Amino acid sequence: MMASPATSTRAARRILPHRVVVGSGRRPAGLARAGGEGGSQQGASEPFNLPAELGILSLRLGTSVMMFHNGLDKLKDPEGFSTFVVEKYLDFLPFDTIAPLLWTYGAITAELACPVLLALGVLGRPSAAALLTTMGFAIYFHLNQTGLEGFPLGVVEAHQYAFETSSLYAGIFFYFLLAGPGKLSLGGGKKE
């Protein structure tokens, strides 16, 4: 025997002491369905939040400038990076099809081109994905070289874990991969 909808609602009210609306078909303001439906204004875009967008812009620009420098650093000695980092610590890469020096130039290209694109907000998500990949390799390198160094409570001589910077970069690029470059960009916050 099935309970009537009224009985189900009374049972829900006993379990959940706050007001429960069953079957109204309306969503609370601020909750929207995929595709832009819902809320009080159907199809309306989200309001422009200047402080949040300025924060996203400053994060995007600051991170991009620092990552561009990272690429310039590799460009100064690609052979050394290839020998002492790629060949030694990233030996799982398919060197039979792509030489270590080409992997290095791939990382250099990503670290010089993608920060510019990300800073401008053009192809922000693909750029963030490429940079997240290079930071994944950097984290792997640092963990192989120094290990966890007592993370999270260890105090290290260098005052930061070797993998700390690349992990912070990875977190920032993961954010931009998911959220996009923001509305203050040449892409204007459009979906990519």
UniProtKB/TrEMBL annotation:
Transmembrane annotation, as ranges: 102-123, 130-148, 168-186
Lineage top rank: taxon: Eukaryota
Localization terms from the record: Cell membrane
InterPro entries tied to this protein: DoxX, DoxX-like_oxidoreductase
One GO CC annotation: plasma membrane
Keyword check for Membrane: yes
Keywords: Cell membrane, Membrane, Transmembrane, Transmembrane helix
Pfam families for the chain: DoxX (PF07681)
Membrane topology recorded in Swiss-Prot or TrEMBL: Multi-pass membrane protein
Annotated spans, Disordered: 28-47
Protein name: DoxX domain-containing protein
Origin organism lineage: Eukaryota, Viridiplantae, Chlorophyta, Chloropicophyceae, Chloropicales
